[in-house]
Amino acid sequence: MSxxxxxxxxxxxxxxxxxAGLTVVAGRRTLLQRVVTAxxxxxxxxxxxxxxxxxxxxxxxxVGVGGWSPVDGVVLVxxxxxxxxxxxxxxxxxxxxxxxxxxxxxxxxxxDGGAPLPIFHPTLLVLSAGVSTTFLSGDLFHVYVGFEMLLxxxxxxxxxxxxxxxxxxxANYVVVxxxxxxxxxxAIGLIYAATGTVDMAQLVGRLDDxxxxxxxxxxxxxxxxxxxxxAVFPMSGWLPDSYPTAPAPVTAVFAGLLTKxxxxxMIRTQTLLFGDDGYDQLxxxxxxxxxxxxxLGAVAQDxxxxxxxxxxxxxxxxxxxxxxxxxxxxLSSAIFYAAHHITIQTCLFLVTGLIEHRGGSTSLSHLGxxxxxxxxxxxxxxxxxxxxxxxxxLSGFLGKVGLLRAGAESGTSLAYLLVGGxxxxxxxxxxAISRVWGRAFWRGPRASFTDDDGExxxxxxxxxxxxxxxRPLPRGVVWPTAVLVALSCAFTLVxxxxxxxxxxxxxxxxxxxxxxxxxxGVAGR
Length: 525
Fold this sequence. Notes:
The protein is mainly alpha-helical. The chain has helices at about 10-25, 30-55, 80-105, 110-115, 120-135, 140-160, 165-195, 200-210, 210-230, 240, 250-270, 280-300, 305-325, 330-360, 370-375, 375-390, 395-410, 415-440, 460-470, 475-495, 495-510, 510-520, and strands spanning about 60-65, 75-80, 445-450, 455-460. It is built from 22 helices and four strands. The strands form two sheets. Strands 1-2 form a two-stranded antiparallel ribbon. The protein is globular, with a radius of gyration of 22 Å.
């Protein structure tokens, strides 16, 4: 039996699931769990890189799982978009896994670190499998299965340690995401009832044959389900209350990946299944409100984790802007910005975990002087923070310029309003990040510790410097963060080739007939 490139396609799903089973069997043998997890996630990174290299040539890989035809069974599809998202997500997950291992090696505090708990490794692997499933699926029901894998794994990770705040946040998270899953599943049922299939290649022609009212109803239901998962306003209130309670590596992987899965599903269904612009104007309004409400929420925060959670919501608006603007440049810029934003948000939440380790808190009221006390940590925060704010020549600036050009190219009054809103959001992002820099890094030394009653006690001056010096950062958490920050800078260095790739990805997404021909073998079937 000869090995073909198509045989690589199922591996990003299969390998983590096998690894999850092995780490469950390993139980509390932490070293064995770490070795298995590292090998599996490292293998997924290699496979994703190979798939990207294949997809970059324009080839679309299609695999019918279990030997079934795409019409009768589950189909996995790799194109330029899915390959890029798969590679970026797998690299980020690998980096977070290394950070979590370093955190666990540094401390036996299972409640705070999360990594030493036996359930952490299998759950992270299931999360990775769920992300890969969503990116690779060629039918709507299998996308739903990927979402449910994510929901299960993310709830377990969110409640690691079982503290009251984490369980409360986890319950809120699950209720909201179950609602989005219910809407999505109902939409799938109605689509199957109307067309007789949930395979996306077959749906291309069959949805076009429905009455406009029916097609718009189905499209609207899908968008509602995806917008909840992507935290698009007004369905974004759950995110800032859920993410900050989790351990640093968990919050980082959530911030980097989970909302982007919802955005990916929006891109895939909007470009492939629905050729009209029935909801573009509504999405433009939602994008504007998501940007502005999110960043105004960030400006009002005192806690770094909550501030970053609100900026996460705000910058989802940029991605929705790119989807809704209705031209190829907007779609290309949204894909570029998604890859950039996954990396940047993960970096910032990992660095926040380092700040919490040394300062004893993530509240700006309890932090100060880190530029002098921990200059290396200050640099690790400074670079991705400027990138998030869109300071030239970093990749955040380049992605935003692409989106602004797309809005101007569209030429509608609402698109121009989005251009203005994008600029305001970028300036307010810079202001919010500057507040963190001014208080946590620039002002006089300040740190805190928890007393016997569980209350935070502030210390300042020389006493704060001594307290911070007594909490050195282990290399196991520093170097994965530093490598990921360096990777975020690499996006700037390869921005030209990456934009060429995303331009080709956007063009490929517009070729609906090509997708149908590759998946079903007969164009238009």
